[in-house]
Amino acid sequence: MTDVSTTSRRDLVRGLDLHLDRHGGGLREGLLEAFREAVRSGRLPSGTRLPSSRALGADIGVSRNTVVQVYAELTAEGWLLSHRGSGTEVAPRTDATPATASGWRHPRRPPRPLHDLRPGSPDLSTFPRTEWLRASRRALQAAPDEALGYGDVHGLPELREAVATYLARARGVHTRPDNVIVSSGSAQGLALLAGALRKRGVTAAAVEEFGLPMQRRLLESAGMEVVALPLDEDGAQVAALHDRPDVGVVLLTPSHQFPTGVALHPDRRAAVVDWARRTGGLVVEDDYDGEFRYDRTPVGALQGVEPARVAYLGTTSKSLAPGLRLGWAVVPDHLVDAVAAEKGEVDVFCGFTDQLAMAEFIRSGAYDRHIRTMRRHYRRRRDQLVAALAAHSPATRLTGMAAGLHVLAELPHGDESVVCQGSAWQRLAIHGLADFRHPGAAPGRDALVIGYATPSPSAWNGALRALAQLLP
C-alpha cells in the first residue's frame, strides 16, 4: 500500500490546483474531476493512501466538510476505498472491470450487501418456532372437519374471534369478530378497502407525504388520485383535507408515523375523526408496529375513537414474520360486505393451518409473551444504536419517539444521496428518507431511515460497525 508523505501530498495538491472558483459550486465539482483525472492518468495508482480530509482541506484552503463530501462521492463511484481507522485509498483496478478505448477501466460495481439496516422486517431469528409448532399441533388436533374446507371469505371464525379479543385488550380497538376480515397482510387489506371504496365512487385518497410507495401504488391501482398531507413534529397536517373536498379516504400511521417516527397529535386525531364524521369519509389506520413502544404504554388505536368511520389494518409481518402472510382488517359495518366481496374476487381464504395456529397462539397467551420479549429485544437494539451514533457521529441527530423497529437519522451536511451511494461500498443496505417521499411533496430534510430489527444477533455488531464507518 502506498503512503502519501508530506512532500508527495504537496505534489498531489499541486496536481489538484485547477484555479477553481472557491465561492461557487465549481470547487466541489473541480475537486471531484481532479481526483478522477489523477486516477485515470496513473498519477494516483491503486492502493495510494490519501491525506486525511482535515489535512487535505488545510493544504488546498477548503473546508474539511467539502473534502469529506468529495471523498464520500468518489467512494460511492468506486474510485476510492474508505476504511475506518486506516484512512482512504485509491481503489484497485481489476481485470474484471471493462476497459475503454483509452485503457481506463471503469470503477467496479458495488459488492453485494453484507449488512441489512433497511426498515420493514423483524429479527427473523427470534421467530418462536417451538411455541408456533405447539400451537399448530393443538389447533389441528382440535379443528373440526369443516375447517379443512374452502372456508369463509372473511377468514376462519376462530382467528377472527381471537383477533377481536386481542385487539380490544392490547390496542383499544372496538370490534366484533364479524367486522374482522383476515388477509394475507396489511397490503392486501388496503387493496381490498381501496377496491370497495372505488366502486362506491371514491376518486381521491390522501396519504402522509412520507410513507410506503407500495401503499400509494395500491390506491392508484384502484383508480384513485393520491394526494399528500404535509408532515411536521405533530404528524400529518390533517387540516389540509379541507382544501380537497374530493378526498374520500385518508391513510394514516397515527401511532408511529412511518418513516418519520412521530405520533399524531391528539388534536389532530380528533380533527381527522371530525372530518370523517362530517364528510362521510373513511380513515384507514395502518397500525404496522403499534405494539412496540419503549418509553411508555403504547397509544391506543384511533379506531377505538370512532369505529364507524375508521378501518384498522394489522399484520404479523413486524411482530412475527412477513412470511406468515397473515393480517387483518377491522372494517366498519357499512363496508364489511363490500370488502368481503372484493376479497372473494381475488382469493377465497388464506391458508387454514396458519389461521388456526395463529388463533391458538393468541388464545394461549404465547403471542402476548412473544410481544413482551421482542419489546425488550428491540429496545436494547435501539439503545445500542443510539449509543453507537452518539460515539461515532455526534452530529447525526435522531428524531422520532422511542418506538417501532426503525429510527430516523438526520444528516448534518445535507448529503443523503452521497451517503446512500457510499453505503453500497460498505456492503450496507440502507434507505434514505427520499425513498419514501410522495412525488408531489416538496423536498425535505436529508436523513437515513435505519431499521435496527432486521440483523440477526450474530450480524448486529457488524452492521453497527458498517454504519459507523459510513456516517460522517
Question: Any descriptors?
Answer:
seven-stranded mixed sheet; 14 helices; four-stranded antiparallel sheet; globular; 472 residues; disordered N terminus; alpha/beta
Strand fraction equals 5-15%
How many separate helices? Answer: 14
Largest sheet: 7 strands, mixed
* Strand neighbour order, sheet with most strands: 4-12-11-10-9-5-6
**What's the overall geometry?**
globular
Helix and strand composition category: alpha/beta
Poorly predicted regions are 1-11, 13-25, 94-104
Helical content stands at 40-55%
The whole-angstrom Rg is 26 Å
Average pLDDT value? Answer: 86
Describe the protein's architecture and organization.
With 472 residues, the chain is an alpha/beta fold. The strands form 5 sheets. A 7-stranded mixed sheet has the order 4-12-11-10-9-5-6, sandwiched between helices. Strand 13 and strand 14 form a beta hairpin. The two termini are 24 Å apart. The N terminus is likely disordered.
